[in-house]
Specification:
Elements (H helix, E strand, L loop, with lengths): L26 H40 L2 E4 L2 E4 L3 H7 L2 H34 L4 H13 L2 H11 L6 H8 L14 H26 L3 H9 L4 H12 L1 H15 L4 H7 L11 H11 L3 H30 L1
Antiparallel strand pairs: 1-2
Length: 319
Amino acid sequence: MSAPSLTPSKAGTPRHSPPRAAGSAPPVGRFAKNLKRNLTAHGFLIGAVVCFAVFSWYPMVREVLLAFQKTESGQTTWVGLENLATVLDDPAFWQAWRNTLLFTVLALIFGFAVPFVVAVVINEFHHGQGYLRLLVYLPVMLPPVASVLLFKYLYDPGYGLLNELLRFLHLPEQQWLQDPDLSMLSVVIASTWMNMGGAALIYLAALQGIPGELYEAAELDGAGLFRKIWHVTIPQTRLILSLMLLMQIIATMQVFVEPFLLTGGAGPEGSTTTVVYLIYQYAFNFNNYGAAAALGLLLLVLLAGFSAVYVKLSRAEDE
């Protein structure tokens, strides 16, 4: 007798399915497992998106709406560009922009160059780099208020350490935070000390990624320290330097904590009034949230436009 055929008959009898390998999960089990894994991943993703939308996107959209609205006696009305006109007519507006640009320039001179120099110096040490990295990053770990109060003590005209040092050197004492010509520089020095640790470690990581053969070739060509930095270090870290420059400009244009705590915000003769502090005044001192939102929107547009132009120029230079 012949064995029964496993192929389907002419009448349409279905073919027998091949036996399942030992240990393999059934299709329903695999589907449930994949569904559970995907639901967990999408749950975390949705949570992050919701948090970002609530704490980032919604305030931005709300600021744009407030910039064109005014609320009086509980009634909100659309006023168009009236809030922007109010801000532009304020004499403190132009002074705030001048002070902000001055702080940005000084912060780039100190806060951008000093961390890079510190990173280069630390990179030259072959022993104890871990302790040096900790020492440099320590100010970043301190609360900003504590760091500012420390500098407020150093700048004190009576018993401050800086004036004590000047007296010891028989030099004239200075009114660091009370002199309009020195107040902004004093704020920049404090801000540089507080924030340079993170940038220094980023630069140090970039420096340690440079192949040592490039420095060896430069030494064979007779290059000294400064020529190696100019011809090897800077070109090899140009991408990081460009990114940090952009981030530095965006951060310094939004300075608020240091002048607010050191000089009360405005400073002597308004010498430390910044754009963000003026936004704070409109919102919490004058209760004019529309003007505050309009000024914040103007700052946002300016920084976004600068970032777009900077990125475009960087890409054109790379090409």
